[in-house]
């Protein structure tokens, strides 16, 4: 498989020989056991510094959804009381820039499009191919959480997330999760366990990762959040979002919620 010279400067293929079957099987079994995988030092320091510099310059254009939401990211359900798990609100105050705001020559694009990188993701995720989003906003995003901003408890709509931390805050900004809260394919809403997590009555795990680590996370059934950033350094994180089918875009209402615009 051919990989472009640019992505070769951005990914440490020696430390992460993604085509090697032993390496692959080792990471695959860890991902399948834990629903999360952190590949330390996957991206080079050149990648991190280039992308931090470009992301900091773009931060002024970030959209901050000033909203609360439930953990299912669905509208209020009037059939249930306000304090029912389906209606309990959490705050998300982080900002983000959309794919159409990322420069065409960004290292993020070199990585997102790289055939060897995609092929490795497919092997880990157990899918035949990964495709970009059909809309112009969702494929690559950069998230910003300055002091006091956070991402509240939620389940992801997508079955997997691929991220890398670019800039770590002084403290806070911790990724917390509770695995296997529900089985969404069974239509399971797990109201009791959701309420227990919101009431701090469940054991909560933390996933620790540093700038340049590649993080894969199955977030559809694991409740997760990012705690508020503390200190003056903004938490900055890149999200590489793919679909396992072509021509899928977010609905206009989802685009409106996440980006404050539909195009
Ligand atoms: O910021 C993170 O580490 C996780 C982001 C996340 O959970 C999401 O975007 O759904
Ligand atoms: Fe998430």
β-strand number: 15
Class inferred from helices and paired strands: alpha+beta
In angstroms, what separates the terminal alpha carbons?
Answer: 34 Å
Summarize the amount of helix as a percent range: 25-40%
Overall pLDDT: 94
Write the layout of secondary structure elements.
Blueprint: H1 5-10, H2 21-34, E1 36-39, H3 45-58, E2 63-64, E3 67-69, E4 90-92, E5 95-97, H4 107-113, H5 115-125, E6 140-145, E7 151-154, E8 161-167, E9 171-172, E10 175-178, H6 191-198, E11 205-207, E12 214-217, E13 223-226, E14 229-230, E15 235-240, H7 252-259
Antiparallel strand pairs: 1-12, 2-5, 3-4, 5-6, 6-15, 7-13, 8-12, 8-15, 9-14, 10-11, 10-13
The protein binds 2-oxoglutaric acid and fe (ii) ion (FE2).
Fe (ii) ion is lined by residues 154, 156, 161, 219, 224.
Give the tags.
binds fe (ii) ion; Jelly Rolls; binds 2-oxoglutaric acid; alpha+beta; four-stranded antiparallel β-sheet; 263 residues; 7 helices; seven-stranded antiparallel β-sheet; single chain
Descriptive overview:
This protein is an alpha+beta fold and 263 residues long. It has a single domain, classed as q2cbj1_9rhob like domain (Jelly Rolls, Sandwich), CATH 2.60.120. The chain has seven helices and 15 strands. It has helices spanning 5-10, 21-34, 45-58, 107-113, 115-125, 191-198, 252-259; strands at residues 36-39, 63-64, 67-69, 90-92, 95-97, 140-145, 151-154, 161-167, 171-172, 175-178, 205-207, 214-217, 223-226, 229-230, 235-240. It has a seven-stranded antiparallel beta sheet. Helix 2 crosses helix 5. It is globular and about 55 Å long. The two termini are 34 Å apart. The relative contact order is 0.21. Bound molecules: 2-oxoglutaric acid and fe (ii) ion.
